[in-house]
UniProtKB/TrEMBL annotation:
It comes from the Eukaryota. One of its GO terms (molecular function) is hydrolase activity, acting on ester bonds. The lineage of its organism: Eukaryota, Viridiplantae, Streptophyta, Embryophyta, Tracheophyta. InterPro entries: GDSL (IPR001087), Iah1-like (IPR045136), SGNH_hydro_sf (IPR036514). Coiled coil: none annotated. Belongs to the 'GDSL' lipolytic enzyme family. The keyword Hydrolase applies. The keyword Transmembrane does not apply. This is GDSL esterase/lipase. Pfam families: Lipase_GDSL (PF00657). It comes from Paspalum notatum var. saurae. Keywords: Hydrolase.
Length: 265
């Protein structure tokens, strides 16, 4: 006879059994991978768009940052087989590709080592996208254009580092960033994948230069918030609404205080 408030002896166990979805032996939480340059690498700093995305998808998906400061698409091609192996872990549920700020560095300036011609930039993005498609035909792939450039902000930042030795000409221009953004958008259209035009979106706001950019290139908390909002909206439109995705394990309200194992069977 079972005592009041206790579980039947036949269901008790030293280690509560857990039955995962689909009868799998191990719960694998889906992943959202953020692949890009320093704007992605810094996205988990306080106020960063990656950290905000991890909060949005808390207990629904793991947000994995693969950001590489200073990288362009040419160098990114050396990474894709390591970050997105075609045999091994389950492929990501979604991936953002956020390159172009370094590809658009101007020749003859301090960042010329990072420069990639715009036609090659587009071709490199295509190679990255095709590799992801080979990894999974269901992965949501989101391209993000390079952000706008505040040239005066870049000059101020250079002076803060080098004083009078700072070069007078900016190593990037907003006009050139816009050219790379247009090629990114064009590729997304050709490959039928979503693209976030962050270059245009940020410039819709008056005073965007200081509001969204900390040094004329990288993002302030407000700039990060814009990227987060656009990424969430794009993922939602692709069917990845956080509120509709299941928890990886039962919500605490579903766990019986006397018989917790029932929630995991």
């Amino acid at each position: 006879m079972t005592a009041p408030g206790s579980c039947p002896a036949t269901t008790a166990a030293a280690d509560p059994p857990v039955c995962h979805a689909g009868g799998s032996q191990e719960m694998v939480r889906p992943r959202l991978v953020l692949f890009g340059d320093s704007i992605t690498e810094q996205s988990f700093r306080p106020g960063g768009w990656g950290a905000a995305l991890a909060d949005t998808y808390s207990r629904k998906a793991d947000v994995v940052v693969r950001g590489y400061g200073g990288y362009n698409t040419r160098w990114a091609l050396f990474l894709i087989h390591h970050i997105f192996p075609q045999d091994g872990l389950a492929p990501p549920l979604a991936t953002t590709i956020f390159f172009g700020a370094n590809d658009a560095a101007l020749l003859g300036r301090t960042g010329e080592r990072q420069h990639v011609p715009v036609s090659e930039y587009k071709d490199n993005l295509k190679k990255i996208v095709n590799h992801l498609k080979d990894c999974s035909n269901s992965m949501v792939i989101v391209l993000i254009t390079p952000p706008p450039i505040d040239e005066e902000g870049r000059e101020r930042f250079a002076r803060s580092l080098y004083g009078e030795n700072a070069r007078k000409l900016p190593e990037r221009t907003n006009e050139m960033a816009g050219v790379y953004a247009s090629y990114c958008i064009e590729l997304a259209r050709e490959m039928h994948i979503p693209c976030i035009n962050i270059w245009s979106k940020m410039q819709e706001t008056e005073g965007w230069q200081k509001l969204y950019l900390s040094d004329g290139l990288h993002l302030t908390p407000e700039g990060n918030a814009v990227v987060h909002k656009e990424v969430v909206e794009t993922l939602r439109n692709a069917g990845l609404k956080a509120e509709d995705m299941p928890y990886d394990f039962p919500h605490h309200s579903k766990i019986d205080g006397c018989c917790p194992e029932k929630a995991f069977q």
